[in-house]
Amino acid sequence: MKFQKYHGTGNDFIMVSFIPSNPEELAKNICDRHFGIGADGLIYPSESSVADIKFNYYNSDGSIAPMCGNGMRCFVQYLLDNQMINKHSFNVETLAGIIHVEYNPESKLIKINLGKPIFKLEEPNVSTPIHEFKQQALSISGNIIKFYTINMGTLHTVLYVTPNMDIKSIGPELSKNKFFPKHSNVNFVEVIDQNTQKITTFERGAGWTLSCGTGTAASAVVSRKLGLVNEVVQSIVPGGVLNVYVEEEIKLEGPAKRIATGEYE
Predict the structure, then answer these.
(1) What is the C-alpha to C-alpha distance for residues 10 and 188, in angstroms, rounded to an integer?
(2) Residue ranges in the chain whose pLDDT is less than 50
(3) What is the 3-state secondary structure (H, E, C) of 23-38?
(4) Model confidence over 97-138: pLDDT tens digits?
(5) Does a cis peptide bond (omega within 30 degrees of 0) precede residue 124?
(6) CB-count exposure of residue 95 (10 Å: 0-12, 13-18, 19+)
(7) In this structure, are strands 185-193 and 155-160 parallel, antiparallel, or unpaired?
(8) So which residues are the catalytic ones?
(9) Less Cβ around it within 10 Å: N or C end of the chain?
């Protein structure tokens, strides 16, 4: 089985050109970093009746993700590298809706329109409805943790790093808290100045990652709502730098690169 591997600021993905018969099992096996190729997720294209092409994504644990910002940029680069799409501006169908993408041949950066953030949340995303943008609080390991949760194509929880905060234990515990019936991605944010912030993300289907595109976007949205950053935010993640444009619709910009081609047995 032929595959190609890409990364977007360290968030890595396996690309295949066909529709797998059992994508859940393939994702778990091929993404295993010891017994497979190793990646945060599996992506493959399929035909769409409402857009130019459809984006299909499975986390490394075999679960489906409706959208992935870094994965989408890698998907766009994969389509262009393999001449599956012959234009630099097009629409992609996802489980989170239709995403408009643009490739800049000069900068080699890819900008994706993530749409509008959703602040009103209900089951199955949260056990107790959230009616508006508002800080929430839960007891985690005996400590009161304050956070914000929004939907940016997929569910994201954002909290701000404080001195002595044990993010390594809080991340997985908060992600799997019963407040989130289907779990949540968790983003830890440090605001550097009004133009820059640092983000570290625990993803519900992949664990700690070097970068999370929708998480970076969600973090910028929350910081902007709180008046902590400007409309254009340079976001530093462990795997590199992403730009977020907090406009009426949120746009995420960054690189994507092919790092391997091969055959999986």
Answers:
(1) 17
(2) none
(3) HHHHHHHHCCCCCCCC
(4) 999 999 999 999 999 999 999 999 999 999 999 999 999 999
(5) yes
(6) middle
(7) parallel
(8) 68, 212
(9) C
Whether pTM exceeds 0.85: yes
Give per-residue pLDDT as tens, 13-32. Answer: 999 999 999 999 999 999 99
Identity of the amino acid at 164: N
Per-residue pLDDT tens digits for 243-253:
999 999 999 99
Residue pair 14/260 in contact (Cβ under 8 Å)? The answer is no
- Mean pLDDT for the chain overall: 96
- Please, what are the domains in the chain? 2-115+254-263 (3.10.310.10), 136-247 (3.10.310.10)
From residue 246, alpha-carbon distances to 114, 192, 232, 239 in Å are 10, 17, 6, 21
Alpha carbon separation from 220 to 11, 86, 159, 242, 254 (Å, rounded): 19, 32, 12, 11, 15
